[in-house]
Every structure is written in C-alpha cells, then in structure tokens.
C-alpha cells in the first residue's frame, strides 16, 4: 500500500496543492495541504491543553468546511477519535447526538456556540440525563476556543505527532439518517488507506486531476472519496458548502468551468435538483470538456435522470462517458464497485417479478415491459463481492440475493456494539450489506434494499425513526404503523408512504392523515406523499412488520380504490372550507386553483403559510412569475414573503394600488404579556466611525450594496438568531424620500432583495388599517435624511432602525413600541446589530 496510515498520507502531502474553500458570498480561500497540517497542529495544541488525550472521542458538530478539516486532522495527528456528525436544527437531529453520546465512552463535543446552546436547551427541555452535563463540562466552542489560531507563534506547535498502528481507529462514521439506533462504523487506518488505493486505481486518479465536491464532509463520499482521495493523490480540491449548492446549483458548474475541474460527484437527488433549477441555459458559456469523471452513487441511480442530465449538459461539452456509476457504503470505508472509466451509463433490462431472493433474473429487450437497473461495474481493488441467501449460501451469477463484501477496506464492526457487529459479519469475515443484487459477467447490479432504508433528497431515513416520530401523535400506536419508500417511476425517486392500521370511518382517517403529514413535516422536514389505511398489518411470525409486502400490494394496485375515496373526501372537505361564507375575496379561489394546478402536493388551505407547507425558494420564484401572468400585474418574490397565505395574497391583489405594512413572526419572548401604558424610551444608539467606518464603506462598495442595505441585512440576521424569525421582510426607506418599499432578508445566502416598485408613501400610513397577530411585529429600517413627513413612526411600526450618514461616520438609533415589545429582548437584538455591524468589517 502507498501509505501505512493517514499521518503518513498528510505528511507526504505538499507542494503547491491544497484545498480551496468557496464561501457563501462567492469568495475563495486557499489552504495548502502543508498549511492544513500546520494549522491542525495548532488546533491539537488547544485540544491537548483542554485535556483531550489519545484514544478519547470528540463529537464534531461543525458546518464550516475549513474548521471541520482542521479539527478532523487535529484529532488524527493526536490519536483522538473524531466522530463527525451532520449538524441539524430539529429535535430529531439533536436526539441523535444524545443517542450517539450514550454509545461512546466519555466523549467531548465541539461546535458553534449556537449549536452547543441548542443542544443544552434540548437537553433541558427533554429532561435528557445521558450526557451528564457534558454539553457544558466537555464542550468546546469554535468561537471561543479556536477563533484566533493565526495569532499564535508557530514554533509552539512543533511537536511529535501520534503514530498509529494500521489497526488503530482513525474515525467513527455514524449513519446519516438514523436516530432510532445509530450505528457507528469503525474505520481503521488500514481500512481507509486500502480503500483510497482502490479508489485511485479504479478511477485512474493522478496529480494532474482537479476535484470539486459540494457533498458534506460528514458524508463518506465527501470526506473519504474527495478529501482523503485528493490528499493521497496530491490533487487540488475545491469545496462548495452543501447549503450553497442547494440554493445556487449552477455554482457547481460555474466553478468547474472556472477552475478546469476534472473530477466531481453527486448522488441521484443532486442531478435532479440541478435540472429542476437550471433554466437559463443561454446565459452560460461553460466549457465542460475538462470534466473526466462525475462519480454517481450514494443512493439508487435513476437511468432516466442520468440521460436527461447528460442531454441537457452536452451543449456544454460534457460527455456521457464522464458519468461514473459506483456502489459503496460506510462499512466498506466507501468504495465497493466501480464502472470502467469512460464507459458511461450501462444498464440491464430485467423482469421485475423475478427479483426476489433466490430467483434467476430474466433479461428483456427494450421493447418489452421491463425494469431498467444500472450496472455498477467490478469490485474495487482489495474488495471481494458475493451474492447469498439469508443463511449465507452462495448463489451463482444472475441470481438475486443479499450482497456480501470482504476485504481490508471492510470494517471490523460497529463501535461498542458487539451484538450488532456479529449480526452483520460472519465468522470468516464476510459483511452482509443488507442490499439486494446479482452478479452478471463479474459485474455488480444492485436491485433493492433488504434493510428498508428510505432515500429522500439525498438523506437516508430508517422507517423506524419516522414511525417513532409519528407515534408521538395521539391515535398512532406501536406496531400499527409502517413507513416505506415507494419508487415513483415517473419522478424516478423514492417517495415516503405511511401505512396505518385503521378501524375508524374514512372521513376521520383523512383528517388524521392530514394532521400527521403536517406533524412529520414540522418535526423531520419530510414530505409524506401518501398515508394509506389498512385493515390488517402484514407481519412475520415473530411480529416484525413486512414492509416489502406493503410495497408489493401498492404496486399491485390493491389500494387504488381507498386512495381514490380518500381523495374525494379531501376535495369535498377543501371545497367546504373554501365556501363563500369563509372567502372574503373572489381572488382566493383563483389562487387556490393556481397552487393546486402547479403544486398539488402542497395541499394548501387558504390560511396555511406557503413556507410552512413546504414551498421552497424555487417554488416561490416560479409562483411569482405565474401570478404575474395570471393577474397581469407586477409581483415580486418579496410580495409572497410579505403575504404568505392565500388570504393575505388575495387581499394584496384585490386592489391594484394596494399597499401594506409587512409584519414578521417573532418568538413570544419579544412581546409583553399584556398591553400597558409604558412610556416610550429614548431608544438605543451607536456610532461607527474612524477605520471601522472606512472598512464598512469598502465592504459595501465591494458587495455593491448601500450601507443602509447592510444594516437591514445585519438586523435580519439578529432577529433570525435571537427571535427565531423566518421569512424576514422589512419595511424600508433606503432610496427615495418618503417612499416605503419591502425588502426580503435572505440570511442564509447573505442577500437582500427589494420589491419591484415603491409600495406606498410614508404619509399614506395615516389611512392604513393594519391588523397584527399576537406575535407579529412591523419593522422599519430607514435613512433619516429621506424622512420628510412629520408622522410618528412608532404609531405604526413596532421596531424602528434609523440611521444617519455623514462623510466619516454613521449613527444608528434603535426604537421600539413598549406597549407591545419587550424591552430587554429588543435591547439584545440591538446589541447584536451593533456587534455584527462592527465585527463583520473589522478585519477588512
């Protein structure tokens, strides 16, 4: 093997090759592999000073790619066991951290202050005792403990590195979707260097390649396949944050074209997401002839999406031979089988009814009714594959069975879980992957999943996790609910179906299923395609639910009648709710029909928030265009954020000259319990001057924004962080005298979007009738020099941010309506604004 361990791999790294980190504002930061090691030694020094010793575990809750790699390598060179886990902000993700904590011996955790605070709050709220106060006592803050690494004397860190044995643990890879029973795959140095050598040989990687990845570093393809693979081969690597790709998919190929990248990757959902958002092909002048391989794996591969992707990209010189279909799993350190380089998409047409374990496949031609499966090529170097039945009896070629693997790249088991390890690894070292497939001419074809994992939007979900969440609702009982992934042939992706044993009238079940869909969406961010009632739940003799039977029954059409009846009940219920008695504007009916026609899956009621129902930014942009064409008036994305329900949007559209004050939802902590006669305060003020003001001006000029827009953005971030505000739309007066417009603050993409037109004059506030919900507040950000009206702003707005510019400074005043707003909460938000406005520019 090329390397004995990962330490040798990074120490031999060098030259001018390294990692380029692409940030959310499009800027880039380069770090050579030599400097990566040097800076990781600084982080290791901090960890050692805090008492972290070789052999101890460190849970990594880090979103930012550069910090992730520094902490990861600090652990590797110090003999600490890194445990990278994707950062999530809902309760199910936090619960996963606690369950992993209980599996580990006595771990530490590192993350941002926000992430650590969320974990601590969840622990208190949920009465979690398993961490034994560890969030406080064994936690390290990225901001407090690792923020000033550049200020240290580098000579302090010249110290011996930990030299591991090949069988020593390098890191622990936990499954990406499971919260029910997380499994920590133990990956040793030998496992990793062996598999990386196999990847290098299979993909014919050399130092002449350049690689780009948008996959998270908590994903084995992102960390092992691209980071470690690039490092081992002295390949320049470019990293795009995953959430940036989700918001700006075309950046993927913008950067490939710019840097002449030769290697990249995506699972099935990535191609689909890119295609759905890729519209303005005429605006791109990409030359993608540089792309040698696009690794395609990590979830079931759709031949249709592959063909559509290549067809759409061929005008940019991306060839079909660049598609590199692969198969792997965490238990194999990543790679198991690779297609031959430059082969492109290879498939086999089979009879679907003959894909049960033990069946010999029947190949069909393209004109017969068939199921097309993707050929994934040959085993990678050092890895063996066999196909077996449930008892481990080996099948010959072209027989469907469970895929088993064996080799130096294969894990020895799950961390601190001997029973789980023994269940998947035989005495002679063969690991049961849980996947189904067959061998044809020495090549692997995967046909399904014996282990029932559901793939949704690039994430893996175990049915038991979804069922556990569902059981938190009244009326849902253990053993009487089953979640399944059902393959949608038209969309060529999994859909989430839930089956529930039911003894109540269908009308009651329809109501329950609607509530359950919303509950799961709110808790897990998952869209449930269909919930089906059962008169009997198929189970084994030992009581285990037979999910494959439910899937089979659905494909056989056994539920078509009940699904149709439920649909009719749903339509009747919705038509009743949209009766003339409830509808105050005829436009509501038109809007309901528009949403139903183009996005029927959202199931919007007239008072449902578009965004809470699942409307993405892409959907909102498309709906704004549709509404413009339908109602023949200018409609911006900001209008939908300001009027996020059908009722509010209808009210907005009902008058051609309509104007409104936009309100945003804030947490209840920002409001007083009841109205009082409290006097208005003199507000809070701060001034930015001197070099800080000069830097602020430079930043705004460079970003092509005004200082007023910068302040509005900063306050949007403040409310997002402190008040859990979403869909942040401010009333602003930043350009014209007495002219108020709406500005949408995108805190994730660091962007501010303004409406297409002026909404109203400041003087018009005197005739407006505004009804606010209990936890809604109207925010106004304005340039003091543009106010020409004597109107008292706090009679209409709950929060006012006022600024006044001079040649050398800016003075900001922050005011609030004390009869509605809580002073201490508002003061915190103003302090956050002042701190952020200064700190973001102090290093320029």
From TrEMBL:
<dbReference type="InterPro" id="IPR009081">
    <property type="entry name" value="PP-bd_ACP"/>
</dbReference>
<keyword id="KW-1133">Transmembrane helix</keyword>
<dbReference type="InterPro" id="IPR036736">
    <property type="entry name" value="ACP-like_sf"/>
</dbReference>
<dbReference type="InterPro" id="IPR042099">
    <property type="entry name" value="ANL_N_sf"/>
</dbReference>
<dbReference type="InterPro" id="IPR045851">
    <property type="entry name" value="AMP-bd_C_sf"/>
</dbReference>
<dbReference type="Pfam" id="PF00501">
    <property type="entry name" value="AMP-binding"/>
</dbReference>
<dbReference type="InterPro" id="IPR000873">
    <property type="entry name" value="AMP-dep_synth/lig_dom"/>
</dbReference>
<keyword id="KW-0472">Membrane</keyword>
<feature type="domain" description="Carrier">
    <location>
        <begin position="582"/>
        <end position="657"/>
    </location>
</feature>
<dbReference type="GO" id="GO:0006633">
    <property type="term" value="P:fatty acid biosynthetic process"/>
</dbReference>
<comment type="similarity">
    <text>Belongs to the ATP-dependent AMP-binding enzyme family.</text>
</comment>
<dbReference type="Pfam" id="PF00550">
    <property type="entry name" value="PP-binding"/>
</dbReference>
<keyword id="KW-0812">Transmembrane</keyword>
<feature type="transmembrane region" description="Helical">
    <location>
        <begin position="67"/>
        <end position="87"/>
    </location>
</feature>
<dbReference type="InterPro" id="IPR020845">
    <property type="entry name" value="AMP-binding_CS"/>
</dbReference>
<dbReference type="GO" id="GO:0070566">
    <property type="term" value="F:adenylyltransferase activity"/>
</dbReference>
<dbReference type="GO" id="GO:0005886">
    <property type="term" value="C:plasma membrane"/>
</dbReference>
<protein>
    <submittedName>
        <fullName>Surfactin family lipopeptide synthetase A</fullName>
    </submittedName>
</protein>
């Amino acid at each position: 093997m090329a390397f004995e361990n990962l330490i040798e791999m990074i120490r031999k790294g060098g030259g001018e090759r390294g990692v380029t980190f692409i940030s959310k504002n499009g800027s880039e930061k380069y770090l050579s592999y030599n400097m990566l090691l040097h800076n990781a030694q600084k982080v290791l020094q901090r960890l050692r000073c805090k008492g972290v010793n070789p052999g101890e575990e460190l849970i990594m809750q880090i979103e930012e790619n550069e910090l992730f790699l520094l902490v990861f390598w600090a652990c590797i060179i110090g003999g600490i066991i890194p445990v990278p886990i994707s950062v999530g902000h809902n309760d199910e993700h936090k619960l996963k951290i606690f369950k992993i904590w209980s599996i580990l011996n006595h771990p530490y955790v590192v993350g941002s202050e926000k992430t650590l605070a969320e974990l601590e709050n969840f622990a208190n709220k949920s009465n979690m005792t398993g961490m034994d106060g560890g969030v406080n006592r064994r936690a390290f803050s990225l901001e407090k403990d690792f923020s000033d690494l550049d200020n240290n004397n580098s000579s302090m860190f010249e110290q011996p590195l930990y030299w591991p044995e090949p069988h020593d643990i390098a890191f622990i890879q936990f499954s990406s979707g499971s919260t029910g029973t997380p499994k920590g795959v133990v990956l040793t140095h030998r496992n990793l260097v062996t598999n990386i050598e196999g990847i290098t040989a299979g993909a014919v990687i050399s130092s002449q390649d350049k690689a780009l990845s948008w996959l998270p570093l908590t994903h084995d393809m992102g960390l092992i396949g691209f980071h470690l693979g690039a490092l081992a081969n002295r390949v320049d690597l470019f990293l795009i944050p995953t959430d940036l790709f989700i918001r700006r998919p075309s950046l993927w190929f913008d950067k490939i074209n710019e840097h002449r990248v030769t290697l990249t990757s995506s699972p099935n959902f990535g191609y689909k997401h890119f295609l759905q958002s890729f519209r303005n092909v005429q605006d791109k002048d990409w030359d993608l002839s540089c792309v040698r391989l696009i690794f395609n794996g990590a979830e079931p591969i759709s031949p249709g999406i592959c063909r559509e992707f290549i067809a759409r990209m061929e005008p940019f010189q991306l060839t079909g031979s660049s598609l590199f279909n692969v198969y792997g799993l965490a238990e194999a350190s990543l790679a198991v089988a690779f297609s031959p380089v430059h082969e492109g998409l290879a498939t086999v047409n089979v009879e679907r009814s003959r894909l049960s374990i033990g069946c010999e496949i029947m190949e069909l031609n393209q004109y017969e009714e068939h199921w097309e499966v993707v050929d994934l090529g040959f085993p990678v170097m050092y890895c063996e594959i066999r196909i077996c039945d449930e008892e481990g009896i080996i099948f010959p070629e072209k027989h469907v069975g469970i895929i088993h693997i064996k080799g130096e790249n294969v894990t020895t088991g799950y961390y601190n879980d001997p029973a789980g390890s023994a269940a998947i690894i035989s005495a002679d070292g063969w690991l049961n992957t849980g996947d189904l497939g067959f061998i044809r001419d020495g090549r692997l074809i995967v046909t399904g999943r014996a282990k029932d994992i559901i793939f949704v939007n690039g994430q893996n979900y175990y049915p038991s996790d979804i069922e556990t969440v569902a059981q938190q609702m009244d009326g849902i009982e253990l053993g009487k609910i089953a979640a399944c992934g059902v393959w949608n042939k038209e969309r060529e992706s999994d859909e989430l179906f839930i089956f529930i044993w039911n003894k109540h009238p269908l009308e009651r079940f329809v109501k329950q299923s609607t509530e359950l869909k919303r509950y799961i969406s709110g808790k897990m961010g998952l869209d449930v395609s269909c919930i089906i009632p059962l008169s009997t739940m198929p189970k084994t003799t030992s009581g285990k639910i037979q999910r494959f039977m439910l899937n089979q029954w659905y494909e056989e059409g056994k539920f078509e009648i009940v699904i149709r009846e439920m649909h009719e009940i749903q339509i009747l219920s919705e038509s009743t709710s949209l009766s003339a008695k409830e509808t105050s504007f005829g436009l509501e009916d038109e809007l309901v029909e528009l949403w139903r026609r183009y996005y029927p899956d959202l199931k919007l009621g007239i008072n449902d928030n578009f965004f809470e129902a699942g409307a993405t930014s892409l959907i909102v942009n498309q709906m704004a265009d549709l509404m413009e064409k339908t109602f023949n008036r200018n409609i911006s994305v900001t209008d939908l954020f300001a009027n996020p329900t059908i009722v509010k949007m209808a009210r907005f559209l009902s008058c051609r000259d309509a104007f409104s004050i936009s309100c945003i939802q804030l947490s209840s902590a920002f409001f007083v319990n009841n109205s009082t006669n409290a006097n208005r305060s003199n507000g809070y003020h701060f001034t930015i001057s001197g070099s800080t003001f000069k830097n602020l001006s430079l930043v705004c000029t460079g970003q092509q924004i005004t200082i007023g827009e910068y302040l509005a953005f900063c306050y949007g971030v403040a409310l997002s962080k402190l008040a859990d505000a979403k869909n942040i739309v401010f009333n602003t007066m930043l350009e014209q005298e007495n002219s108020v417009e709406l500005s949408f603050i995108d805190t994730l993409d660091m962007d501010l979007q303004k409406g297409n037109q002026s909404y109203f004059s400041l003087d018009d506030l005197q005739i407006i009738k505004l009804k606010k919900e209990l936890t809604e507040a109207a925010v106004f950000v304005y340039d003091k020099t543009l106010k020409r009206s004597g109107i008292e702003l706090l009679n209409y707005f709950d929060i006012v941010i006022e600024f006044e510019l001079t040649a050398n400074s800016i003075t900001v005043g922050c005011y609030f309506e004390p009869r509605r707003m809580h002073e201490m909460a508002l003061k915190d938000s103003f302090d956050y604004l002042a701190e952020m406005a200064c700190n973001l520019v102090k290093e320029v």
